[in-house]
Amino acid sequence: MIRVLVQTDAFDLGGEMARLSHISDSVGGISVFMGQVRGQGDGLESLTLEHYPGMTEKVLIGLAEEATARFSLLGCTVIHRVGTMRVGEPIVFVGTASGHRAEALQATAFLIDRLKTGAPFWKCERFTDGRTTWVEAREADDDAAALWD
Amino acid sequence: MASVTILYFASLREQLGRERETAAVAAEGESVTSLLSALRAQDSALNALFERTPRIRVAINQALASFQDTVRPGDELAFFPPMTGG
């Protein structure tokens, strides 16, 4: 069961985990990754996430389908927020359910690694002094995504 | 005339000061590189932006593409910097 959402609102972490847990009696393991806005001690106030409506959903659904087939998932949820989020606020939820832990753990890592460099999101940082800068892509993220090729 | 829609995102959108435009395209289609060359020749701000920005990505009809791929009339083309989600 695939669930992909792109939304401005915060998500309900417990509710999303319960949804995965209740998919079927065959679920034996659930793995979750949640990403949030990291304060870096440099006056970061908030992040604004821009995306490409239409393409974003297509890419995320494609990744969820790929993960489901590759790791025999029973459930796969990807929720990505857009708009402005302050330090400490959640940005992304990836949750997977499978019969056994290995598939769920691997699928979650696959999804977040691929999503970071393959889904059309861009982060703009805003600092307390009013400066804004676009976050630069990191080579380490490309390397992490490529490990799943 | 045959045309395509072009979208710009993130830093490209911000630096160009616009998020979309339409451009003429050969009726039989042409490569992204060919279309882009014509656009850059007419627009010095766009030319300068592509010159100073490394690793610009392109999507055709909402799927990642390469600059050698063919754009056809009615297509939606998008240019953006490397993605930074998650």
Automatic annotation (TrEMBL), chain A:
It holds the Pfam family MoaE. Belongs to the MoaE family. GO terms for biological process: Mo-molybdopterin cofactor biosynthetic process. It comes from Acetobacter tropicalis NBRC 101654. Its EC number is 2.8.1.12. InterPro entries: MoaE_sf (IPR036563), Mopterin_biosynth_MoaE (IPR003448). CDD domains: MoaE. It catalyses: 2 [molybdopterin-synthase sulfur-carrier protein]-C-terminal-Gly-aminoethanethioate + cyclic pyranopterin phosphate + H2O = molybdopterin + 2 [molybdopterin-synthase sulfur-carrier protein]-C-terminal Gly-Gly + 2 H(+). Keywords: Molybdenum cofactor biosynthesis. This is Molybdopterin synthase catalytic subunit. It is an enzyme of class 2 (transferase). PANTHER family: MOLYBDOPTERIN SYNTHASE RELATED. Heterotetramer of 2 MoaD subunits and 2 MoaE subunits. Also stable as homodimer. The enzyme changes between these two forms during catalysis. Pathway: Cofactor biosynthesis; molybdopterin biosynthesis. GO terms for molecular function: molybdopterin synthase activity. Converts molybdopterin precursor Z into molybdopterin. This requires the incorporation of two sulfur atoms into precursor Z to generate a dithiolene group. The sulfur is provided by MoaD.
Automatic annotation (TrEMBL), chain B:
Gene3D superfamilies: 3.10.20.30. It holds the Pfam family ThiS. One of its GO terms (cellular component) is molybdopterin adenylyltransferase complex. One of its GO terms (molecular function) is nucleotide binding. The keyword Signal does not apply. GO terms for biological process: Mo-molybdopterin cofactor biosynthetic process. SUPFAM superfamilies: MoaD/ThiS. It comes from the Bacteria. Keywords: Nucleotide-binding. Belongs to the MoaD family. PANTHER family: MOLYBDOPTERIN SYNTHASE SULFUR CARRIER SUBUNIT. This is Molybdopterin synthase sulfur carrier subunit. It comes from Acetobacter senegalensis.
